[in-house]
Each structure stands twice: as structure tokens, then as C-alpha cells.
Amino acid sequence: MTRRQHFIIILILGTLSTISPFSIDMYLPGFPAIAQSLHTTIAQVQLSLTAYLIGISVGQLLYGPLLDRYGRKLPLYAGLVIYLLASIGCATTTSIETLILMRLLQALGGCVGLVAAQALVRDIFPVNEIAQVFSLLTLVVAVSPMIAPTIGGYATVAFGWHSIFLILAGITALILVSIYFLLPDGKAPDPSLSLRPKAVLGSFWMVLKQPQFLTYALVGGIATSAPFAYISGSPDVFMNIYKVSEQEYGWIFAFLAIAIIAPTQLNRILLKRFTSEQIIQTVLIYQSLVGVLLVGGTWAGWYGQYGLIGMLFLFLAGQGLTGPNASALSLAPFVRHAGSAAALMGSFRMGFGALVSATVSLLHNNTAVPMVGVMTFCAVSALLILLIGQRAIQYRSTRETDLETPLSEAIL
Questions:
Q1: Which pLDDT score is estimated for 186?
Q2: Can you give the pLDDT at residue 90?
Q3: Which residues cross the membrane (predicted)?
Q4: pTM (2 decimals)?
Q5: Considering 169, 263, 341, 385, which has the largest number of Cβ atoms within 10 A of its Cβ?
Q6: Is residue 190 part of a domain?
Q7: Number of H helices and number of E strands within the chain?
Q8: 353: containing domain
Q9: According to the model, what pLDDT value does residue 333 have?
């Protein structure tokens, strides 16, 4: 593979992975305008975000077996077409109920990009390069929070919030063309894999029985759901409590995205000296400590607008390190069932994201405490699961080693 081909593949896989982040981030500055236009509340508009996250969580479980059975590209085309049509539906809706439904359908289509991108990484690149490739993908994905809310803010002011979904439809059309002409096929279709419910559930169970997958998929899912608390709560915190404009909110969101981008490249350097396991544990300890300060300071009223932004920056700096390493460790044990493993991993992440988003909305009390409190809970919970899971992995590894030891060797 030439450097040019490597760059093109990473770029396409990165854009596939950005479909959902763009769909989430771009319309955040439009929340007040959407609520006013559809004669509803921001809390109701937040439910459209929750519906999107639920759709991603469920949809990924459907695409995993399809990607393993029919190859990577056919399900990819189908999902992206559904997403494109649903985006047009969002742009033409006149009620909050229809918007929520269209967002659900949009998620069910667009989530194929997340699963397919991760499965293709496992198909195309050697195992020892996966963590570094995921770091590069995270860099591409991390750019989206820098530009998506800014574009969304200006588009809302200039053309109305409906234009956001038309822009998303146009971006998806360009991605479809690039996939057809430039992206390798990846793993070939496997007709021996059955799509009957019993067989599909058996594949998922085979993946879930692997302690390494279960540990790091749960850790990655819970840890990476912390930003969803921020995404769900920040429009209300900054635009309603601190009274910033749509454009200003977009710039705040873009600034905080830097906290995710920089560590993704630091991860590539750290991997030369430390293991993914070591990096994840250190980062979660760091985020837990920062989170405690964030919650305590917010509760006590220590931080104004800029103080809160600074503390959020420190907390989010850990996200660019946890995600890529957790993904690499989750997928490493699998070849044949990489699609199912990627689907389960993605489902965990978006399922927890949906739960976190809904929790922030339910705990809404006109302060930033629900947002930062849920973020901190995610970091602390992920750390506890990691410590317990590492013991389970070590126990299984020791047990398997003992079973493989010849009797004569054991006696000696």
C-alpha cells in the first residue's frame, strides 16, 4: 500500500466515522430556533438527540451480521441511502414528533458508517497497527466538533435550521461516490454465516464471551459517553444560562474540540513506549480526579463561563486517548467476526450515550451540575470496570496457560 493509498483510505474511513458526529454536533446551535419554529421546548428538541443515539445503538447490532455476511460495501450503500432520505425528511418536517422519528431513521441508516469503518480497519491493516490507525481516524472525527457546530450556527442564522439537514444530505452523497470509486472492498462476503436469529445471537455471544472484548468495550462505551453529557447539556448551559449566541456557542464547541484532537496524536507517540492498557488506566484516573474538581467547583459556584470552559477542556483532553486504545483492544481478538464485534462495541458506546443524554435532560435544573455530574460518573464508573475487568482477563489467561501445560512439565 502506497502512502497516497494509505492517506485516501484513512480519509474515507474517517469521513464515514464523522457522519454521526456531524449529525449530532451540527444542529446543536439550532436548538432554540428549532424549538421556536416547531412550537416546542428545548427539552423536547433534546429528545431528538436521544432518539438519534438510540437509533445508532440499535442499528449497529443489525449491520454487524450484515457486514460479515454480505461484505462491507453492500450494507454500506443501503444504510447511507436511508440516511440521505431521512435527512431530507428532517429538513422538511413541521412537527417535533416527525423530527424525532426522522432522526431515528437517520441514525438507523447512518450508523452503518461507524461499524463498517471499524471493521474495514480490522480487514485492511495489521493488528499491530490498529491502535495507530484508530488514532488517525479519531483525528479526522475530532475535527468535526470544531467545524460542525460553527457551520450549523452560521447556517441557522443565514438560511434557517432546515438547511443543516440539507447540508448533511449533500455530504453523504459525496461520501457515497468516494466509497464506490476509492475504497477497497475489505473482507469478502461469507455465505456460510447465517442471518437467522439463533446464528446471529450465537455470533454475538461468541464475541461477548471474550473477556478482553467485554472489558474494553464496556470501558470504552462508558468512558466515551461522557462527551454526550456535554453535548446534550451544553446548548442549555451556554445559550440559556450564559446567554451566548449561536455563533459564539459554535466557537466554544470548536475550542473544546481541540481537547480531543491534540491527544489523538499524542497517543501515537505514547504507544511507542507504553501499552494501550497502561494508557487507558492512567487517563481514567486523571479524568476521575478532574471530574471531582469539576463537580465540586460547579456546585460551589467557583467557575464562571470561562472557568467552566477551562475545566471542561481539561476533562475532555482524556477522550482522545481512551477511545482509540479501547477500540483496538476490543477488536484485536477477532478476524471472522470483526463486523459483529465492531457492531457490539459501537452499540455499547451509543447505547450509553443515549442513556447519558436522556439522564442530563431528566436532571435538568437550570445549572451545569447535571451535565458535569454525569460526565464525572462516566469516568469513575469506567475506571472501576477496567480494574475489575483486567483481573478477569488475567485470570482467564492464567487458567488457559495452566490447561495447556503438559503434565510432565507441571510435575517438574
A1: 81
A2: 95
A3: 47-67, 74-94, 100-121, 133-155, 161-183, 213-231, 251-271, 283-302, 308-329, 341-363, 369-389
A4: 0.69
A5: 341
A6: no
A7: 18, 0
A8: 3-183+196-400
A9: 74
Instruction: Quickly count: other Cβ atoms within 10 Å of residue 327's Cβ.
Output: 29
Are 29 and 246 in contact by the 8 Å Cβ rule? The answer is yes
Q: Transcribe 156-218 into DSSP letters.
A: HHHH-THHHHHHHHHHHHHHHHHHHHHS---SPP-TTS--SHHHHHHHHHHHHT-HHHHHHHH
Q: Which residue type, as a one-letter code, is found at position 370?
A: P
> What are 303's three cell numbers?
467557575
Residue 148 lies in a domain: yes
Tell whether 394 is covered by a domain. Answer: yes
> Which domain CATH number covers 364?
1.20.1250.20
Q: How many domains does the chain have?
A: 1
Tell me the three cell numbers of residue 144.
Answer: 468535526
Name the average pLDDT for the chain.
83
Segment of 137-146, 172-181, 218-227, 292-301 carrying the highest mean pLDDT: 172-181
pLDDT at res. 400: 57
> Minimal CA–CA distance to 90: which of 175, 166, 171?
166
* Dihedral angle sign, alpha carbons of residues 173, 175, 180, 186: negative
Instruction: With a cut of 70, say whether residue 405 has pLDDT above it.
Output: no
Question: What are the Cα distances from residue 4, in Å, to 120, 153, 182?
Answer: 18, 34, 11
Which stretch of DSSP H or E encloses residue 232?
A: helix 226-234
Would the pLDDT of 327 be above 50? yes
State how far the Cα of 177 lies from the Cα of 269, in Å rounded to an integer. Answer: 34
